[in-house]
Specification:
Number of strands: 10
Shape: globular
Distance between the termini: 37 Å
Order of helices and strands: HEHEEEEHHEEHEEE
């Protein structure tokens, strides 16, 4: 799957500002903690600004398809690295390196604010859905944009680094009520689940995207991205 260009990522981010992961438990709302909205979680919380330059965040990425006509299954390693900006060393940027087998790709640099791997995944989603449905890329991006702004957010807890941490689960089904059901066909029930926590380096812990079979007995397509490691540079320790 071809990696997106930076302009496409930025376009998705700009327009966007206008059900359950395994091991995730839903918690009662705590009055002392204000529940964030989906746009705040996804775009506006500066998770990366809290990390020192040289920090690397590693994610395991797995894409599994049930049929060959749905594309290839593959595994990747995604690494986000914080570094000084070339034009101003007092500012940080984030670069993303993606390894699939012996092939390397990259994306960025991005401002060191929200976690850009959410945008990497969503741009891939837009391309995959467009390719599978033969639909308009503009229509697909608009549906994803709208869904990101209307996604459900609820408290959640999950295991990270051998401990249970508190955070937020953000869920959405962008095409569940889409008027173009016939064209979208099997994609209509695709659902997205994101886990965020400010306790986790980089804020984003995991993303799971599932397209279930019509009979509910399995998944046609499943994509999972999970934080596997976080490390600071020796100079930052």
């Amino acid at each position: 799957m071809r990696l997106m260009s930076r302009p496409l990522l930025l376009r998705l981010a700009l327009v966007a500002t206008l059900p359950v992961l395994a091991g995730t438990a839903v918690l009662p709302v705590r009055a002392a903690i204000a529940q964030p909205g989906p746009v705040e979680l996804f775009f506006e919380t500066p998770y990366l600004a809290k990390l020192p330059s040289g920090t690397t965040l590693s994610y395991d990425y797995a894409h599994t398809t049930a049929r060959k006509d749905l594309g290839d299954s593959f595994d990747e390693k995604m690494k986000l690295t914080l570094m000084p900006a070339e034009e101003d060393a007092s500012k940080q940027v984030a670069k993303v390196d993606i390894r699939r087998g012996n092939a390397d790709q990259g994306a960025g640099p991005f401002p060191a604010l929200s976690n850009p791997l959410t945008l990497v995944l969503m741009e891939r989603e837009a391309k995959e859905i467009t390719d599978l449905s033969k639909g308009s890329p503009f229509y697909i991006r608009n549906r994803l944009r709208t869904a990101l702004g209307e996604a459900a957010v609820e408290p959640a807890s999950f295991d990270y680094g051998g401990k249970t941490v508190s955070g937020w689960k953000m869920s959405m089904e962008p095409f569940a009520k889409d008027p173009h059901k016939q064209q979208l066909a099997e994609i209509i029930n695709r659902r997205y689940e994101f886990l965020f926590s400010e306790t986790v380096p980089g804020g984003l812990y995991a993303i799971r995207v599932v397209t279930p079979q019509a009979d509910g007995k399995g998944n046609l397509i499943e994509t999972k991205m999970t934080l596997s490691d976080a490390a600071a540079s020796p100079a930052a320790k």
